[in-house]
Design brief:
The protein is of the alpha/beta class and 259 residues long. 36% of the residues lie in helices and 26% in strands. The protein has two domains: 160 residues, Molybdenum Cofactor Biosythetic Enzyme, Chain A, CATH 3.40.980; 80 residues, ACT domain (Alpha-Beta Plaits, 2-Layer Sandwich). The strands form three sheets. The protein has a six-stranded mixed sheet with strand order 2-1-3-8-7-6, with helices on both faces. It has a four-stranded antiparallel sheet with strand order 10-11-9-12, with helices on one face. Strands 4-5 form a two-stranded antiparallel ribbon.
């Protein structure tokens, strides 16, 4: 398991031509980022790649060396373009094998009459891979070393994550504090920079918004240290006051009105 004294990192590789074409919107990134954060793991990179074997092999091999955990979504279904399992087998230099345990799981779910050759494609994993339980459709994902191969359908992916929760460990979860104001970003830019320079262990982001005919800015500070976050939140509110603005605690994008 990763050393909890350092930042534990993860990467998501979203696989699918349908995502790149715009036909399907990815709904897994934000869910995974929040899920990992609660376990003290930072999702520090995400890639969206096509259903091309060489591209998948290259991305998996690069990411599994660079991050503590790698998650892939998509491409493990029953259709001809679902090539993720074969591509990951190639990335690890392992044969792709049909797993009778997976066949039996799907037989119980679909029945013999509905267990088609297409569905049997989902019983193939790289040799030696560990199954990831899929409580929804029973077609399992799999884990090879630090790479977790998940379904692309959000409900399936989320249920599969719970099946591997015991395998994920990191440091302290990242917390956040937010302040917003109907103050232009340009007016508080220097003040934000000054606060950031005083607190290098805090990540401060600035997010302009426009709502109900008025512009404004939300400032969000993130850190594993809650006491420091409370101090930074006060300093950011003072920055807003110093330019004549009125600070409000919270994220403006979560509010129904700007008042």
């Amino acid at each position: 398991m990763p050393d909890s004294t350092k930042t534990t990192t993860a990467c998501l590789i979203v696989i699918g031509n349908e995502i790149l074409s715009g036909r399907t919107q990815d709904a897994n990134l934000s869910y995974l980022a929040n899920w990992l954060n609660e376990r003290g793991v930072r999702l520090t990179e995400a890639r969206v790649i096509p259903d091309i074997e060489d591209t998948i092999v290259t991305a998996v091999n690069e990411c599994r060396k660079a991050f503590d955990y790698v998650f892939t979504t998509g491409g493990i279904g029953p259709t001809h373009d679902d090539i993720t399992a074969a591509s990951i087998a190639k990335a690890f230099g392992r044969p792709l094998v049909r797993r009778e345990e997976a066949v039996e799981l799907m037989r119980k779910f679909y029945g013999d009459d509905n267990l088609t050759e297409a569905r049997l494609r989902m019983a193939h994993t790289p040799e030696g891979a560990e199954f990831i339980e899929n409580p929804i459709s029973r077609a399992p994902g799999f884990k090879v070393e630090n790479v977790f191969v998940m379904a692309g359908v959000p409900l399936n992916m989320q249920s599969m994550l719970e099946s591997v929760a015991h395998l994920i460990s990191g440091g302290d979860p990242v917390r956040s504090r937010a302040v917003w104001s109907h103050t232009p970003e340009s007016a508080v830019a220097q003040g934000i920079a000054d606060v950031q320079n005083r607190h290098e262990d805090v990540d401060i982001g600035s997010y302009p918004f426009y709502r109900e005919g008025r512009t404004g800015t939300t400032l969000i500070a993130r850190s594993t240290r809650t006491a420091t976050l409370d101090k930074v939140q006060e300093e950011l509110m003072e920055v807003i006051r110093s330019v004549g603005g009125e600070p409000h605690i919270g994220d403006a994008t979560d509010l129904k009105t700007g008042t």
